[in-house]
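Appendix B, example 12.
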Amino acid sequence: MGVWKTDQLATVRVGVTTDGLASRKPATALDVFKDIVTRQPTGRALSVKKDGEWVTHTWQQYYDACQQFARALINVGVQPHEAVNVLGPNCPEWLITNMGAIMAGAVIAGIYVTSASEACQYISTHCEAKVVVVSDKAQLDKYLSVLDQLPTLKALVVWNEADVPRETSSRVPIYAFSEFLRLGEHVEVGKLDERMAAQLPGHCCTLIYTSGTTGPPKAVMISHDNLTWTVAAAINTLEALADAKRSVSFLPLSHVAAQILDIHLPMAVGSEVYFAGPDALRGGLLGTLQEVRPNFFFGVPRVWEKMMESLKEKLGGEPEGIKKSLLTWAMVQGADNAEQSQYGVAAGVSLSFWAADYLLLSKVRYALGLDECATFLSGAAPIAPDVIRYFSTLNIPLYELFGQSECTGPHSINALGKWKIGTVGPEMEGTRTRIDPDTAEIQYTGRHIFMGYLNDEAATKATLDDDGWLYSGDIGVLDKDGFLSITGRIKEIIITSGGENVPPVLLENELKAELAALANVMVIGEKRRFLTFLCSLRVEPDAVTAAPTDKLDKVALAVAKEIGSDATTVPEAQACEKFRQYIEEGMARANTKAVSRAQHVKKFFIIPRDFSLDGNELTPTMKLKRSIVEKKYVQEIEQIRLVAKRYMKKLFRVTRLIKFVQKYMKFAYAVQVFACYVSVIHWVACLWAGPMLNLVDNAEDEQLAYNQALYSAVQLLLNIAGVPVDPEWQFLAGVLGIVGFLFQCLTLASITAGVIGTSSRMLQYQEKVKMVMSDLKALHVPDDLRKATKNYYEMLWRMKNTSDRYEKAIYEDDDLSPSLRAEIALYIHRNLIATVPLFQGCSDSCLAACVMRLKTQFCMRGDVVFHKGDPANSMVIISRGKVKVISPDNDGLLAVLKQGSFFGEIGLLRHMTRSCTVIAGTFCELKSLERNDAEEIFD
């Protein structure tokens, strides 16, 4: 036995401790099952609606059916630890198949009903399934189409007897479920008892296949102890679960959350499971909830979002009056109570909240079928805090939890008395959590950690270390109270071409919060200069298939009406300028909330169809398959990039022109005069061409008339003799000649002044260089050093002969007040210092104090900025040029930092030495801030 395994025949060591919940005695799933049957043999276990009536199995009937199925598996030759697959909707047969396979010592693996035949074949081949159980003909056909690729398969079982083909050429026998159960009558009970007794808590019990969002699905091996201990830990955290009597099963049972909540938790507490109909996620769930009135309810975020939208539509549609005012008041009381219920807030229930809940809020919960529900949970994907806050106004404390298949579902859970909106709660008792200091990855350990990935040692080693710590792949932070917040997923982190790390989920949630008409958003930016996003609009689902249509739903139509758009379908919205403006404005609002400019989104594309299960963009738990979406919409993404590229090229040209004018500001007056000169020429040409335009009737002649007028205007303004002028225009021509002469004089004077000023400074510089070079020669300094010195002065001249000269004058001009100098300095260097995270969030006065203390340093290529081991007493920002960071062992290049980068900031925070040597890669202008200055500022 060991910490992890990849063979389903293996046994893992159960990590029992000496105290706390982790010291709980290990048990198998069958131990728990037998215990509840002993305690409540006639208790209600499973209920399903048939022909409009609820049909119930008692715990004893449920147990007996599982035993019969297990004996049938033994009959067809299924050996211990071999795999059985099940593919069908939530129903008693699913649970009987599941627990019956476990009784036979087999390993059960569920398959999503939405899986294509290729996915079914992959899973059954991967786990070498011996028996596959399906619900109906549609699922059976998936297997019949790939039967020749399943050499280990021994039997196919169909729940619906009418869907069993009477004649088939299949090499594998196909049984109706009832027929298959009868096969168990030929197997002795003692043989099954031996199988059940041989099972250990460390044996593999079930396989949970991952969604495959980043590649082929992996088989997560879950042991008996994983299941039984995790259920005990969940009950310990959410104490109300111990008293639960009813729950509704509607989420896919192939998912670990559904298996914990619909199979193993009810066995532990003796609660009854009601199965929702196949239309649960198409609007039928509400009716089931109203009938069952469950004591706990778990939904993925999309379920809660749809419920919220329905409530907003219904409650928002109430006419103005006393009833609506009372409801608004009650919801405010609910929100206040939720705030008072947050961890660390010492407050009791107010009388006004009690009254609001009794009179109004309880009625809303009753209408939802949740009036007897004590535990409300959300998981499997991130949920927006606004959704949680909305339900809190109705006294529905929605507890978000965090986990994954690899930890048997939950790891951290918000709960009564331990609830913080915006977090996923503290860790369950008996588990431990840590955050990697370098990557911020969440890592945890405990008895809920899986055995390993079936037949995939490399992936297992990358996920589990030898001490049993699971590397989750999620990024997060732990606050001082031990509450965990998820900020992203390592595989989903976007790294832009500028090297910025951007977690997309936070941006996507912000965009959806700002734009009510959007259904889904996916941010794109990997190795790109800036971020863009694909978005889908809210649409009505198909009444039969629930697939998205192109008809805008009520929310999107309300937005369209508000912005003045006539669009009613997605194509019309795509072509509507008002819709594009609406999204652009929402995008701008979302950008104001971004933590940095690197997280600003710039462009978008409205896709023609919303993400969906049948479109393969979403997993069964509504997680986004980013790689699939990128491949599917590669042309649209490229279209965004090309549009943005053209825009950036134009912008770059303008930027270059602005920089050129700024660089040669000594000619600014001449530039302004020249601009006026060109403007006058254009105006005169238009005036002159006016009479001629009345005589032409096509665009080509119009252009010719303007060109002739432009040529004459240029000649007149340049005082070129010989221009033929009609008598009626002679006075105007004379005025233009005078104006042109004045323009020429002004331009010549401006340029002359600039040249004289530059020449004067250049002469002073040349004299200085000549004197220095003469001294160096007299001191017999080698030629290469003298040449380097001359090059240094030449580069210094180029750099200081630009705006730096004005900066220096501003800094040292005593005629300016200190506050004004500081404000100007901040304007000049704000973008430079704003890149440093240390200064983000600082006030303008603090930033101004920093830039006033920046010291300028010039370095030639090859100069050492500082050596490894030098005292680290300053931070350096690269204003121009680039530097090279040499590895600590001096055996290679560690990094190249360019303009706008910074280094050595740790030297401002604590006394230490430089960890690397830094060398100038080009002629550099560096701005440094000393620790003493920083301490003075921040003190």
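The first strand starts at residue 44 and ends at 50. Residues 646-667, 690-700, 802-810 have pLDDT under 50 and may be disordered.
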